[in-house]
Write a structure and sequence with these properties.
The chain is an all-beta fold. The chain is built from no helices and 11 strands. Strand 5 and strand 6 form a beta hairpin.
Length: 123
């Protein structure tokens, strides 16, 4: 069973930064895409950023230039560096493992999920 454990959420003022981490169990981490999603109350879960098993990266338009996704295959870990945070970034952030090497933009294209970590940005 694959397990994903996120850390790094918290409360930050607008303009601040946070770094989320997600450690994935198992030996096949590098074979799969990884994604970060977020869900605010009353909203659907949305893709924030995704990275294939290689180096291809995709960002939501709302976070381009502010957030950076990266992965360390030796540590089975994916990161989300979030800079210039805005109150509208407030949400529960989830990491997820893609069903394939290439992943995708929709939650249905991911099969394992972390428990989520709260990010709150105050104005």
């Amino acid at each position: 069973q694959v397990q994903l454990v996120e850390s790094g959420g918290g409360l930050v003022q607008a303009g601040g930064s946070l770094r989320l981490s997600c450690v994935v169990s198992g030996r096949t981490f590098s074979r799969y895409a990884m994604g970060w999603f977020r869900q605010a109350p009353g909203n659907q879960r949305e893709l924030v950023a995704a990275i294939t098993g290689g180096v291809s990266i995709n960002y939501a338009d709302s976070v381009k230039g502010r957030f950076t996704i990266s992965r360390d295959n030796a540590k089975n870990t994916v990161y989300l560096q979030m800079n210039s945070l805005k109150p509208e970034d407030t949400a529960v952030y989830y990491c997820a493992r893609g069903r394939t090497y290439y992943g995708g933009n929709h939650p249905n294209e991911y099969d394992y999920w972390g428990q989520g970590t709260q990010v709150t940005v105050s104005s």
